[in-house]
Specification:
The chain is an all-alpha fold. It has five helices and no strands. The protein folds into two domains: about 40 residues; about 50 residues, no CATH class. InterPro entries: Arc_rbn_hlx_hlx (IPR013321), RelB/DinJ (IPR007337).
């Protein structure tokens, strides 16, 4: 496996405090960063931090509400009305959008 180096600049006090917590959790900073990057690569989920996390959360909630509104307005008594989640996924995967 080829490896790459990831680096970032942080305040020296922040680094010292964080390193202490990381060690208390039984990890090294390198292990923590590697695990974080692998988790993001495997799940596509970026952890939320500070206000940016709140904005992402609000965007997801708005998208969920929009999806619920679309579902609520689907015609009743049609094939769409009775489709399961898996059926809908298959339907959309088969579309050339």
């Amino acid at each position: 496996m080829a490896t790459a180096t990831v680096s970032a600049s942080v305040d020296a006090k922040v680094k010292a405090v964080a390193n202490d917590y990381i060690r208390k959790a039984g990890l090294t900073p390198n292990e923590l960063i590697r695990d974080l990057w692998e988790s993001i690569a495997n799940t596509g989920v970026v952890p939320e931090f500070d206000d940016s996390g709140d904005m992402r959360r609000q965007a997801r909630l708005a998208a969920f509400k929009d999806a619920q509104d679309i579902i609520a307005n689907l015609p009743r008594g049609t094939e769409l009305d009775t489709m399961t989640y898996d059926d809908m996924r298959k339907e959309f995967e088969n579309r050339d959008i």
